[in-house]
C-alpha cells in the first residue's frame, strides 16, 4: 500500500475529503519524525511506539576490500508494534492458514 491508497482508505472511513486526509497524514508523519528526531517517544496506545534508539560503535568489514572498518555510533528511528496491532497481525495469519 502506498500513501495514495492509505489516503483513499482513510477518507472512505471518515468521510473527510482526500485533500484534508492527505494534509492530516502529512502533519501526523511530520510530527512523529520531528518528535523522534528531538529524542522523544511517540506512543500510540494499541498501535505502537516510535522512538530513537542508540546503536553502539561496532566493527564491520568493507565488502569490496575485505578490510575491517569501524562503524560509528549513531541514533536510528525505531518502531515497536503495540499489543493490539500484534494480536491483529497474528490472528489474521491464523485465519489465512486455515
UniProtKB/TrEMBL annotation:
Keywords: DNA condensation, DNA-binding. GO terms for cellular component: cytosol. One of its GO terms (molecular function) is DNA binding. Pfam families: Bac_DNA_binding. GO terms for biological process: chromosome condensation. The keyword Transferase does not apply. PANTHER family: DNA-BINDING PROTEIN HU (PTHR33175), DNA-BINDING PROTEIN HU-BETA (PTHR33175:SF3). Belongs to the bacterial histone-like protein family. This is Histone family protein DNA-binding protein.
